[in-house]
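Input set for joint prediction.
Command: fold jointly, output C-alpha cells.
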Amino acid sequence: MADTKKLAIIASQGSLDWAYPPFILASTAAAMDMEAVIFFTFYGLPLLKKEIDAKVSPHSNPAMPMKMPFGSKEFQSMNWPIPNMISGNMPGFDNMATMLMKETFKKKGVATIEQLRGMCQEFGVRFIACQMTMEVFGFEKEGFIDGVEYGGAATFLEYAADANISLFI
Amino acid sequence: MSEIASQMELNCEGLNCPLPILKTKKAIDSLNSGEILKMTATDPGSVNDMASWAKRTGHELVSHTESSNVHTFLIRKK
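C-alpha cells >
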C-alpha cells in the first residue's frame, strides 16, 4: 500500500494486565496492514523472555474487579473486593489473582499473551529491546525469544518520528 | 440466508477481541483476490471491528447478518 500507517508502542510494564495492550494493538495493527514496532523497556523487558511469567497484583490496582471464573453466571459476575491489608499480606495472593485472571480470560475466549506475541511475530511486528535497561536489570539476549532487535532511545525515535500512532504503555 | 458462495469458512465463535480479526487476517491472506471468506463470531465487538478492519485493509465486507447472537460476515478479498 502506498500509504502504510505506522504504530509505535513503548511497553514499559510487565504485569499480566499491562502485557495485553501492546500485543493486542500491535498484532491488530499488523492485521490491518499497518507497520508496528514495540519498544520494550524497564519492566516491559520480561515480556520478551522465552517463558513469560507475568503476574497480576490486586494490591496495586484498587479498581481491579475480582471475579470468579467458575459457578453460575450470577456468581461469576459478582465482584469480590479484597482489602489491601489482606491482598498485600497474604502469601500467594498474587498467584491466586493471576490464576483467576488467566482462567477468566480463557473462559471468555481471550488469547493468551504468548499467543498474541506469536501472532505479532508472524505478522511482522518488530520487537526492539532497550539495551540500556537490559544491562541495568541483567537481562541476557539468550533468555529472550528469537527475532528481537536491540537498540536505544534513538532507534525507537527514528522509527517513531514517522509514526501515525505513538503510545507509551 | 446469503446466496453468495464462500471459498473458505472460519469459525471464531467463542473468541474475543482481537482474535476474530487476527484469524480473519490469516484466513484472507490464504485466499486469492476476489474470493469470499465466511467468518462467524459471537463477540459483539466484532461487528464494529470487522467494519473498521475492512475499511482499513480495503477488503470488502459484503454482508453482515446476525442470528441468535452469532454474527456472520462475508468478506471479499481485494
